[in-house]
Amino acid sequence: MIKVKQGGDGQICVVDPATDRLTAANATTFKDEMWQLIDKGEYRLVVDLTGVSFVDSSAIGALVGVLKRLGNRGEIVVCGLSGSVEKMFRITRMDKVFPTYRDSAAAAAALSERL
Amino acid sequence: MTRVLHMPTELDQLDGMVAQLTELASPTLSEDKLTSFEIAVMEALTNAVQHAISPAPDKPVAITIDVQPDRVRVVIFDAGARAPDDLYDNVPQPHEIDEMSESGRGIPLISMLADDVLFQPGEGGNRLQMVFNKDPSP
């Protein structure tokens, strides 16, 4: 389901979940595909939620699962939060767990600075 | 206005049902309150499907939505095994859940976002009632 493009001179992986709603219906698929990216050696990840209008607790759990899989090998950040998605990140405090940026360019720039 | 709806116990049915319920609630609830409604109903329906899917895969989840000028009431009944009586007692806030936990946020979100929650587990299934009040006029 996810769409992937490279940023930051190929050292950063920008992931578009390619769905309007990231929920219990597709969160496991999303997590599995993110794990595959990590297992292939992608350790600097931007999850771009610009096109996602709704996330539930299953999606939050999937993102935490990706973070745990990554461990201390790299970094995962999110961008493009708005409306309901921003509210969900705020009330679950995930905005304190995942560094959050306005858009994928800002996220990639921040990750590049930390390379 | 009261509507009774039924949903198969399949996760891929959730988004369509939540969209339908959110549309029905929209005349009463503000935009922010409608976001709370959508999150809480999604969590509750997900729980209902997951609880019912094993013991009663052929029995649909029954949803009653009652939309009034001052509040929206949703009742979800699943035919799953009897849940613990204290499932909704002393529920932590969503931010109090271990941040590295991959589950366990659904009931805290429902408890936080609905104005009133009544959970009645039984031998034939589990009934969850949530009430969302219209925000007072500024």
The CATH class assignment of chain A is Alpha Beta
Shape verdict of chain A = globular
What summary fits the major beta sheet of chain A? 5 strands, mixed
Mean pLDDT of chain A: 94
Strand content of chain A is 15-25%
Report the mean per-residue pLDDT of chain B as an integer: 93
> What is the CATH homologous superfamily assignment of chain B?
Histidine kinase-like ATPase, C-terminal domain
CATH architecture of chain A: 2-Layer Sandwich
Structural class of chain B: alpha+beta
Quote the CATH topology of chain A: Transcription Regulator spoIIAA
Question: Which oligomeric form is depicted?
Answer: heterodimer
Largest interface: A-B, 25 and 26 residues
What's the structural blueprint in terms of helices and strands?
The complex is a heterodimer of chains A (115) and B (138).
Chain A: E1 3-7, E2 12-16, E3 21-22, H1 27-39, E4 44-48, E5 54-55, H2 57-70, E6 75-79, H3 83-91, H4 94-97, E7 100-101, H5 104-113
Parallel strand pairs in A: 2-4, 3-5, 4-6, 6-7
Antiparallel strand pairs in A: 1-2
Helix pairs in contact in A: 1-2
Chain B: E1 2-7, H1 14-25, H2 31-52, E2 61-68, E3 71-78, H3 106-113, E4 116-122, E5 125-133
Give an overview of the whole structure.
The complex is a heterodimer of chains A (115) and B (138). Chain A is built from five helices and seven strands, in the order E-E-E-H-E-E-H-E-H-H-E-H. In chain A, helix 1 packs parallel to helix 2. The N and C termini of chain A lie far apart (28 Å). With 115 residues, chain A is of the alpha/beta class. Chain A has helices spanning 27-39, 57-70, 83-91, 94-97, 104-113; strands at residues 3-7, 12-16, 21-22, 44-48, 54-55, 75-79, 100-101. Chain B has a single domain (2-133), classed as Heat Shock Protein 90. The mean pLDDT of chain B is 93. By secondary structure, chain B is of the alpha+beta class. Chain B has a five-stranded antiparallel β-sheet, with helices on one face. In chain B, helix 1 (14-25) packs antiparallel against helix 2 and helix 2 (31-52) packs antiparallel against helix 3. The interface between A and B is medium-sized, with 25 and 26 residues.
